[in-house]
Structures are given as C-alpha cells and as structure tokens.
Amino acid sequence: MKGPLRGSLLVAGTTSDAGKSVVTAGICRWLARQGVAVAPFKAQNMSLNSFVTNDGAEIGRAQAMQAAAAGVEPEAAMNPVLLKPGADGRSQVVVLGQAVAEVGALDYRERKPALLRIALDCLADLRARYDVVVCEGAGSPAEINLRDRDIANMGLAVAAGLPVVVVGDIDRGGVFAAMYGTLALLSAEDQRHLAGWFVNKFRGDVRLLKPGLDMLEQLTHRPSLGVLPMLPGLWLDAEDSLGLAGLLDRAPGAAAVGGEVLRVSVLRLPRLSNFTDIDALAQEPGVLVRWATRPEELADADLVVLPGTRATVADLAWLRERGLDAALARRAAEGRPVLGVCGGYQMLSRTITDQVESRAGVVAGLGLLPVRVEFAAAKTLARPVGSAYGETVAGYEIHHGVATVEGGQSFLDGCREGAVWGTTWHGALENDGFRRAFLREVAALAGRDFTPAPDTSFSAARERQLDLLGDLIETHADTDALRRLIEGGVPSGLPFVPPGAP
C-alpha cells in the first residue's frame, strides 16, 4: 500500500449486466487486501434477490456479496432503496431495509427527490465511517428519459461529487460505440464526472484491442483503466434474471464420491426470487442442476426444487398452466423428492389466502403439504438458526406469507410429508453439514448410488470467487489511476464531447 487512501468512486455501466457488480466487488476486495476500510454502496437497486442483515433489514444480495468482498458486515445504508418488481407492473419499495409501499413507475418517480436525500445521507454516513466507499450505479447513466430524477447514476455522482468509471461488456459487441454514446448523451455537467473506461469480459489477445482503446481515448479524452478478461464459471449473487443464463453453466471441480450423478431440476418461475439458494447445490461435486419449465424436464430428476418468488399466486397459476402441478403430484405420490423454499413452499400448501400481494383471496395450493398460508401486511425479515439431521442450520427469511403447519414432520420451521419438504428459510443449503445430510436422504429416496463429498465448503468456494475478483482488478486494472481517482475526486479540465463530434 502506498499510503493512506480516502475517497469514493462510482462504477457505472453502458448497460445492465455489463459487470458493474463484479467490478465494484473486485475493487472492494483489492482495497480490503491492502488494509483499507472499504464499503460498497448502491443508492437504488431493482432486484428480486435480496438478503437480510443482522438487524433485520432487507438489501440487495449484490450489496451483501460486495460487503463480503470488503470483509465487512452488510447493512441497510449500503442499499438504502430496493425495488422488488411484482406480477402487476408494480414494485415493492424497500427503504432502509423496510417495505414502505407498492407503486407503479410513475408513482415511484414522484418519490425520487425524497429518496435521493435518504441515499445521500446514507452515503455520507458510510464515508464518515469508512476510508473508501465504492458506489455501484444502476442500468446505464445515459438513460436520458430518466435523468431529471436519477438517484443512482449521474444524479448521485453530481450531488455527492463522485468520479465515475464506466464498464462496457465487450462480449455483447459494440463496446466502443456504447462507451462513446454513453458519454455523448450526457450533459456537460455530467460529463465532467465521467473519468475513465473499463472493458469487461474480453476474450483473446489484448493487443488486438489496443488501437480501438487508443482511438476511444482520443475521441473522449478519457483513459482506459483496464481490460478485464472473461472469467468462465464465475458465479456471484446475480442481481436479476439477466444473471440466470450462466448461473448453472459451470461444473464443480471434483467428482462425486459415489458412482452416480444426482440430478436436480429447479423450476424457472417467471418472478423467480432469491435464486442464489441453488448456488450451493450447483457447486456440490456430482450434483447436476438445471432449469425446468416443462413437465418432461422433471421426469428423470432425483430432486425438484420450487424456489422463491415475488408473486406466489401468479407463479402458481403459471405452473398449473404448464401441467407442472400434475407432474409434482405424481412425484409426491411415488415418494420422489420435492423441496419448496419460501414462495415454493407456499405453493405446496393446501390453501393460500392472499389479500396483500395478489389480492386474490383464497386460492388452492398444490396440496402436497399439510399447511395453510395466509399473507400478512407486515413482511417477516429474520435470520433464524435451528437444526435438521443433527446439523446446525442458519438461514434468512423474507416473506409476507405466514404458514400454519397442520401435520407432517417439523423441518426448519416448515414441514415434511413423505418425500416433500418445505421451508421459509433461504440460504439453508449453504450450511455444508445440513446440505450433505439432505442430499444423502434425497439420493436414498431416489435410489441413487451417490455420496456427497465430505469436504466441500460453500463459504470457502465463495471466498475463492471473491479473491478472483480482487485478482481481476489487481492484475488487469490500472490501480494507480484508480487510487488517484478515489483520492483526488472528480478530475478537473475534462473536455465536453458533443454528440457527433468525430
């Protein structure tokens, strides 16, 4: 480390899924390795993947992951505004970790000035307590139709005096046009904050890219701060469904102890939430995890998982439309394993009474568990700890549905009936001992010669992923330039680049 470092930086992107979350986490890890007290921040996040902090606040999973990269405990100030889209074109607004309203896009727009003040207060608080705060933008900073009330990109950067770096995804093609176009669409005031570029997901020889980088610098008067290579198999708490495509496109590094592969089908629900629950299964050696949307994709599965959803009743209707309800009923009758988590657990119940989320009243569930569910206005946010199969299990809860168990066996505050399990606990499968014990029973019920690897550590695997991100920045970014931006703030004298200047 070259001396004390204090300041802030905002990481924006040319598009959603350009790599903002990854670069933000990588910078946090790189700085934390040097002994810098660093925190992540995202003023506004739209995501169905969320996490519960120790004090019962709900924030985006990406910010929890970035906090882990920084080596600090996640807190509500790191993601003061979280939007959770629903089935009706409306979103639940979570402010400082608590749900406050259900709004449409135009209604939400009217709330933004007040939310910007909250975000700025949270950012100022983090800056007072940490040496460096690495902020992540949302979507693109060049969404000119939304700029007048932006609270996550240039609106935040201008209000808080932040230098901005922009990440472009070269794997999509057109990265130079996306970068130049991003700058050219910004006002002179906003352009003053944009200080450099990251090219992300590059494959091949960087020397072939250099002429384009040189031209981009000449045209924009902003330097390239690094060309980050594609990291095959990277998995880290994706923010939204754009991260689903590559989520299961990876293979564990070791074979199963037993002689067979255990096959898991996960229902890809339309409003799928907290799909990070399956990460631990996908990392287990010898377990093959795949998405499913049709009955035939469940036929040879040893385990079917119904994951969480932001719209239980609407996704239950979707499931029935496709005949998946009958396929699940056949599995249960045959004693073949099914696991429901949170919204998936609610679907397995006998009845669902919902005057809160869908306002559909009483709806028949799948009837595979002896449970009644009634939605409450208040959201349950908790970090429960319990036991199952003789193993300690820690998880987290985020739900409006309150389940009343009327029979079966107790299972992680949910229940089990035959080969069907249900729980409200997210994150349970991240507990290594519990996961292995559960998979052993699944294998026995499925008649598989499968034994989980005895030494697989999900937390260690996640730490290795975070270290890869730190390595990415340390090896491929201009870290001296990053330090100067963080410490020096918004560069002076950057020229305005009008549209069509070339």
From TrEMBL:
Does this UniProt record's set of keywords contain Iron-sulfur? Answer: no
What residue stretches are annotated with the CobQ/CobB/MinD/ParA nucleotide binding domain? 10-233
Domain annotation CobB/CobQ-like glutamine amidotransferase: ranges: 263-433
Task: Name the PROSITE patterns for this protein.
Answer: GATASE_COBBQ, GATASE_TYPE_1
Q: In which pathway does it act?
A: Cofactor biosynthesis; adenosylcobalamin biosynthesis
Superkingdom, natural source: Bacteria
**Entry-linked CDD domains:** CobQ_N, GATase1_CobQ
Q: Kindly state which keywords UniProt assigns to this record, in alphabetical order.
A: Cobalamin biosynthesis, Glutamine amidotransferase
- Which residues are the active-site ones? 342, 426
Family (UniProt): Belongs to the CobB/CobQ family. CobQ subfamily.
Report the protein's function. Catalyzes amidations at positions B, D, E, and G on adenosylcobyrinic A,C-diamide. NH(2) groups are provided by glutamine, and one molecule of ATP is hydrogenolyzed for each amidation.
- Descriptive protein name: Cobyric acid synthase
Native source species: Streptacidiphilus alkalitolerans
